[in-house]
Design a protein that fits this description.
The complex is a heterodimer of chains A (about 575) and B (about 325). In chain A, about 30% of the residues lie in helices and about 30% in strands. Chain A is an alpha+beta fold. In chain A, helix 3 packs antiparallel against helix 6, helix 6 runs antiparallel to helix 9 and helix 9 runs antiparallel to helix 11. Chain B folds into 2 domains: about 120 residues; about 140 residues. Chain B is flat. The chains are: A alpha+beta (about 575), B mainly alpha (about 325). Chains A and B meet through helix 3, strand 11, strand 14, strand 22 and helix 11 of A and helix 7 and helix 8 of B. Chain B: It is a multi-pass membrane protein. Chain B: InterPro entries: Cyt_c_assembly, Cyt_c_biogenesis_CcsA, Cyt_c_biogenesis_CcsA/CcmC. Chain B: Keywords: Chloroplast, Cytochrome c-type biogenesis, Membrane, Plastid, Thylakoid, Transmembrane, Transmembrane helix. Chain B: This is Cytochrome c biogenesis protein CcsA.
Chain lengths: ~575, ~325
């Protein structure tokens, strides 16, 4: 419990408004001149009037950028300062209610006009209803983007949104193509809305939320019992002492400030300030996303086992900020491609063993990647995304080895079918017949003879020959090829930072900011409080707390403290 | 084989227990308040919670991976999420109004999952390579908890709208069927006898009888519940979407692909952000925000089931057509 000052005059106990900042994170808005005694341990009444040197930042000063902020000297005494109303503080004016002479500098003509205009624009942008409307419009555009097929050629839209019987009576392909709805998520309309939302976010953070920090750090005591009774929750404890209430509140985790008969306690201030963090995190994510969209490279390639490629040949830029780096000269060699299977035969995972060689041919990195386990080098990330079969290596009548290229016949996610054909007989005749070989994966090959009848199944490792139509075929190997996606993305660190900040600040803003005021009126304590989020649990929690306040029972000779529950 | 019979038994137990709980609530609602049933309905919800937990754990052990791989399992997880919500929020108050909403949600979700529509999915399936990742746990569980909380909160908002506008319609004499609604909410009168709190009374012109006072108190109470639960759901949804984005970046190289499912999850997030912001304007905060939350209810179902029905995009694992 901290007793800051004892008043000389007991009838107006809470006139002095103290701005006492405890958390060192924030810059002190007000600087105290050191008092003659150490304030931390003050329990004795001392000087009621003292001089505060302060730097007032009124709203005019925010506009006068670069000009020195005016410093004033405020002398507080019990006669001159007016009584305070209950805790409402004006957000824009700050402490303008005190009679302090403010000398503001004159604003020059054109720059003053620009400042007024920007202030007006700022006011419009930070309007809440505008923001809600923007969010709604963006949601509607996104929904529309999922309904309308994206990225098709104009023919598709001519067919599906024809002019003679338009969808919903008016929606034709003209709407779709001029507004850019065929590439909705990169269209100017969508970007414009996002930019507007970003501007609103920044304006709101600047005008409303940052001043909120100043406001919520100001602790105003309520000095009248009526003001306290008007709170959402209020109660009267007939025979109690405010010190006991303060101790109990401290035990419950509140920060308590006691000044004479007045008490102010709060809890969960972070919950009120965290939404600012949410908005800042959103701005960070938008900035990172813009950087990603305008400055990254991407590309994909299917490389058969044993071949290699140069990074720079595969990557293409996505926007105007994309600049290639030195790492683009790296050559990537696919050493081996392999697949794992479940017992049922389906594909469980596929791996590629990669070597990275620099311009001189020296191996700089070697790693086996698989799905969900990419390779990172020099800002480039290589992901394993797909697989296919490139060729079958066979021996025909002990001649060879021949490499037969395999073609995809059917692709359905991870269920694929590849096939190849070995012609038998006269190659140049018009209806050449041959042996067909089909494979679903690298495990086993199914062979069919020249009439199309099933001939047998062989595994590439077994090297068992099979006799079809007089020829002896040995399947030596099934060569797979690895589907790789390459990407560089400079915006990722920013976006990840934004993601982390957003998760954290959203968690914190779930906390509820509760404030409690109390006043000692004779022998009874009047207590009241409010909270901004957990409105249901607050009265119960308060009642439970107040039940524990000891009741003071005065006997004729001495004071006894009873622990009978009161309230 | 024993595991699947065990699963069957657990499913049937939880299904029947919840049916009993719902029947007791209906009796309470329509006939008379039977005090002793509150404890039994609380116990009933606890029993069903343990049954569903057992069901999920059995599937987990049996298939070797967390029960998230397809639509059936995620629906069971959703009903589990509902029962957890009931336990967490319901035990703070003695008289729990929430179970009237949560219990039917649990049973409908589970009934749908267990019904004939999805029978081919009841067997545990293997995970395709793209789903074999640590992120699966966090992303899917956060999303489903978020859906559960948001669905619950938005149902409460629908209840607010029904009470508010049902009263208007009834007082205009249009429909007499809604009269029973007013009668049935009179059981809420009991707990508001001793409140001395200052309330944001809805200023209606026909504010005369004491029943209107208790109704507005009830609406205020529902409104606060709905706000708290939706805030929690919003938190889970945010974490789920962001962890999905990070997972997508690790697996496919880009954290946002405008996939239909991702887009609709973002639309859901936006609608509930609108909900939270409409509450800043304290005039008519309950009605406007309830409209936003009711819209959110529809959007969650589009996002969760509607996209899977189409079976397109990167999230096609959960579709009806894929096995």
């Amino acid at each position: 419990m901290k007793t800051l000052l004892n008043p000389l005059n007991s009838s107006n106990p809470c006139l002095l408004k103290t701005h006492f900042l405890k958390v060192p994170i924030f810059n002190p808005f007000f600087k105290f001149k050191p008092l003659p005694h150490n304030t931390h341990h003050a329990r004795i009444a001392q000087v009621p009037s003292f001089a505060i040197n302060s730097k007032l930042k009124s709203s005019q000063d925010i506009n006068n950028k670069g000009k020195k902020s005016v410093s004033q000297k405020i002398v507080l005494s019990e006669t001159s300062s007016p009584p305070l109303a209950d805790g409402k503080v004006d957000i824009n004016g700050g402490s303008g209610s005190e009679n302090v002479p403010v000398s503001s500098k004159k604003k020059g003509g054109v720059s003053g006009l620009a400042k007024k205009l920007s202030k007006k624009v700022l006011q419009i942008l930070s309007n809440l209803n505008l923001a809600i409307g923007e969010m709604f419009t963006i949601a509607a555009l996104m929904a529309l983007g999922t309904v309308i097929e994206q990225g098709e050629n104009p023919d598709f839209y001519f067919k599906n949104y024809p002019e003679d019987h338009p969808v919903l009576g008016f929606f034709t392909w003209r709407w779709v193509l001029t507004l850019g709805f065929d590439h909705m998520y990169t269209s100017p309309v969508f970007f414009g809305m996002l930019a507007l939302l970003g501007a609103s976010l920044m304006a709101c953070t600047y005008t409303t939320q940052i001043p909120l920090v100043k406001v919520s750090r100001r602790w105003a005591f309520l000095h009248s019992a009526e003001a306290i009774r008007k709170q959402e929750f209020s109660d009267t404890l007939p025979r109690a002492s405010i010190q006991d209430v303060g101790t109990l509140l401290m035990g419950a985790g509140y920060e308590v400030f006691l000044k004479g008969p007045c008490l102010y306690a709060f809890q969960g201030l972070a919950g009120r300030l965290a939404p600012i963090g949410v908005h800042i995190a959103l701005i960070l994510i938008m900035a990172g996303g813009t950087l990603s969209a305008a400055g990254s490279f991407k590309g994909s390639v299917t490389v058969p086992q044993g071949l290699n490629f140069v990074v720079g040949d595969v990557l293409g830029p996505t926007g105007f900020l994309s600049t290639p780096t030195e790492a683009f000269n790296t050559e990537i060699h696919v050493n081996r491609f392999s697949m794992d299977y479940f017992e049922s035969g389906e594909v469980s995972q596929f791996h590629t063993d990669l070597s990275l060689l620099d311009m001189n041919g020296k191996e700089v990195m070697r790693k086996t990647i698989s799905v969900n386990d990419p390779l990172r080098y020099g800002g480039i990330t290589i992901y394993q995304t797909d697989w296919s079969i490139s060729a079958l290596q066979i021996l025909k009548d002990n001649e060879g080895p021949y490499n037969l290229a395999m073609a995809p016949l059917q692709i359905n996610g991870d269920k694929k079918l590849f096939g190849t054909f070995l012609p038998v007989g006269d190659i140049n005749s018009p209806d050449v017949k041959g042996i067909s070989m089909l494979a679903r994966d690298l495990q086993s090959i199914v062979l069919y003879d020249k009439e199309g009848k099933f001939a047998g199944v062989r595994r590439p490792n077994s090297k068992l020959p099979i006799n079809i139509d007089g020829s002896e075929i040995v399947i030596l190997d099934a060569i797979g090829s690895s589907g790789l996606d390459l990407k560089t993305d400079p915006g990722v660190p920013t976006v990840y930072a934004g993601f982390g900040a957003l998760m954290l600040t959203t968690c914190i803003s779930y906390l509820s900011h509760s404030q409690i005021w109390a006043i000692q009126d004779g022998t009874s304590v009047i207590i009241g409080g409010k909270t901004n989020r957990a409105k249901m649990e607050f009265p119960e929690e308060m009642n439970r707390l107040l039940d524990k306040v000891p009741e003071i029972v005065e006997s004729s000779s001495s004071q006894q403290v009873d622990t009978i529950t009161s309230g | 084989m024993i595991f699947s019979t065990f699963e069957h038994i657990l499913t049937h137990i939880s299904f029947s227990v919840i049916s009993i709980v719902i029947s007791t609530h209906l009796i309470t609602l329509l006939v008379n308040e039977i005090v002793g049933f509150h404890d039994s309905s609380k116990n009933g919800m606890i029993i069903s919670f343990f049954c569903i937990t057992g069901l999920l754990i059995t599937r987990w052990i049996f298939s070797g991976h967390l029960p998230f791989s397809d639509l059936y399992e995620s629906l069971i997880f959703l009903s589990w999420g509902f029962s957890i919500l009931h336990i967490v929020f319901g035990f703070k108050k003695h008289k729990n109004d929430l179970s009237a909403i949560i219990a039917p949600s649990v049973i409908f979700t589970q009934g749908f999952a267990t019904s004939g529509v999805l029978t081919e999915m009841h067997q545990s399936a293997i995970l395709v390579p793209a789903l074999q990742s640590q992120w699966l746990m966090m992303h899917v569980s956060m999303m489903i908890f978020g859906y559960a909380a948001l669905l619950c909160g938005s149902l409460l908002s629908v209840a607010i709208l029904v009470i508010t506008f049902g009263e208007v319609i009834q007082n205009l004499g249009i429909s007499n069927n809604l009269y029973f609604l007013n009668e049935s909410f009179s059981f809420a009168e009991v707990q508001y006898m001793n409140r001395n709190e200052r309330n944001n009374v809805l200023q209606k012109t026909f504010f005369s009888s004491s029943r209107n006072y208790y109704r507005s108190q009830f609406i205020q109470q529902l409104d606060r519940w709905s706000y708290r639960i939706i805030s929690l759901g919003f938190l889970f949804l945010t974490i789920g979407i962001l962890s999905g984005a990070v997972w997508a970046n690790e697996a496919w190289g880009s954290y946002w692909n405008w996939d239909p499912k991702e887009t609709w999850a973002f639309i859901t997030w936006t609608i509930f952000a609108i909900y939270l912001h409409t509450r800043k304007n304290t005039k008519l905060e309950s009605v406007n925000s309830s409209i936003a939350a009711s819209l959110g209810f529809l959007i969650i179902w589009i996002c969760y089931l509607g996209i899977n029905l189409l079976g397109i995009g990167l999230h096609s694992y959960g579709s009806f057509t894929s096995n």
